[in-house]
Specification:
The chain is an alpha+beta fold. It has one domain: Cytochrome p450, CATH 1.10.630. Helices cover about 50% and strands about 10% of the residues. The protein has 17 helices and 10 strands. Helix 6 crosses helix 8. The model has no long low-confidence stretch (mean pLDDT about 90). Belongs to the cytochrome P450 family. InterPro entries: Cyt_P450 (IPR001128), Cyt_P450_B (IPR002397), Cyt_P450_sf (IPR036396). It comes from Streptomyces laculatispora.
Length: about 400
């Protein structure tokens, strides 16, 4: 795997041509595997003999993984994404109260108000930038960050730092000392957030999690609390940030599809779903581990192997989505639902919230700026320095064509 990331789709196509499952070399010469094919990934994600807990990570348990390994946090952080069985159900039950359909619907007015305010900021940035502004910085980032931090009760003063640290934690091209420093500071910031909410509880998820811990000491340990906050902040804004960025980029380079949704021939929800499939916000997500030698897609994955879930590859798998899987088509009905929000017991709990944010962002953005277009050729947009996240680092746009 290329630690520098970049656009994954050409490499994914080459790998898929060889098979649905492939061995990979992770940073630090760590041997792993990736599941790329749609059907194979769907089977793997819900297989009863596949675990998330790193006690099944053979190389880690053998002491072969350094403390500063860039992907170590994905394996060792304590929370829902690294829990199995009863532990996973316990943590998911605690979190689920914040992501019920009713709670998400209650956020809709706040999301729409925040979206409108950020469009004002985007226009102001363009006014001082010769008509050009970075949509990612001024709109796609602060929307999901503001929403998830409000849900968690995190003060706005922490937003920029938490985004920077999240970027460091999901990066795959940084050195051991940077990795350790980013994780250490993230724990410090979130510990301060937890302390503030302990002293002054509010109507937020962090306060609810702390209350659950205090009511029954074995329900949520202190490391689980910090790990849960870390995972929720990273997943709750990085993925939606990439979704919005990728959708705007797709529409600007596929003007026929933009015209179709404007004419009522498709919906903004259709745009969100096709973006999730065609340009998944997460390319390769670490890790799952077979608890026994497991045959998936005709390939045996040895027990204890760290496995990447290849969402960006599965989204363009022609065997599932048709020979034109590489084409952005918001009217697509291939019969196979994308897997970009997961599948099985670990399906993304925040999926309804991400979809709502994506629809609100796109609908208001293009209603206010119908002539919006890229300010530079797509080929010049700098890509993420990670094979985990999938997007561009900047999205300069001209608001009025």
């Amino acid at each position: 795997m290329d630690p520098a990331g970049g656009c994954p789709h050409a490499a994914n196509a080459r790998l898929l041509a060889r098979g649905a499952v492939t061995p990979v070399i992770l940073p630090g010469e760590v041997e792993g595997m990736a599941v790329l094919g749609h059907d194979a990934l769907k089977e793997f994600l819900s297989h009863p003999d596949v675990a998330k807990n790193a006690r099944h990570f053979a190389a880690l348990q053998a002491g072969e993984i350094a403390d500063g390994w860039p992907l170590r946090t994905f394996a060792t952080v304590q929370g829902m994404t690294t829990a199995d069985g009863a532990d996973h159900r316990r943590l998911r039950s605690l979190m689920s109260k914040a992501f019920t359909g009713r709670r998400v619907d209650e956020l809709r007015p706040r999301i729409e108000t925040l979206t409108a305010s950020l469009l004002d900021s985007l226009e102001a940035a363009a006014a001082t930038g010769g008509g050009v502004a970075d949509l990612r910085t001024h709109f796609a980032l602060p929307l999901p960050m503001g929403v998830i931090c409000e849900l968690l009760g995190v003060d706005a003063a922490h937003h920029d730092r938490l985004h920077h640290l999240s970027n460091q934690i999901v990066a795959t091209d940084i050195g051991p000392e940077e990795v350790k420093a980013a994780n250490r500071e993230m724990v410090e910031v979130l510990s301060a957030v937890a302390a503030a909410r302990t002293e002054s509880p509010g109507d937020d998820l962090t306060s609810a999690l702390i209350a659950a811990r205090e009511e029954n000491g074995d329900r949520l340990g202190p490391h689980e609390l910090i790990g849960t906050l870390m995972l929720t902040i990273i997943a709750g804004h990085e993925t939606t940030l990439n979704l919005i960025t990728n959708a705007v980029r797709a529409l600007c380079t596929h003007r026929d599809q933009l015209a179709l949704v404007r004419s009522g021939g498709a919906s903004w929800a259709d745009v969100v779903e096709e973006t999730l499939r065609w340009d998944s916000p997460v390319s390769y997500f670490p890790f799952r581990y077979p608890t026994r030698d497991l045959e998936i897609g005709g390939t045996v994955i040895p027990a204890g192997t760290p496995v990447l879930a290849g969402y960006s590859a599965a989204g363009r798998d022609t065997s599932a989505h048709g020979l034109d899987a590489g084409r952005f088509d918001i009217t697509r009905d291939s019969g196979a639902r994308h897997l970009s929000l997961g599948h099985g017991a670990h399906y993304c709990m925040g999926a309804p919230l991400a979809r709502m944010e994506g629809v609100a962002a796109l609908e208001q953005l293009f209603a206010r700026f119908p002539g919006l277009d890229l300010a530079v050729p797509e080929s010049e947009l700098p890509r993420h320095a990670s094979f985990v996240g999938n997007s561009v680092r900047r999205l300069p746009v001209r608001l009025h064509g």
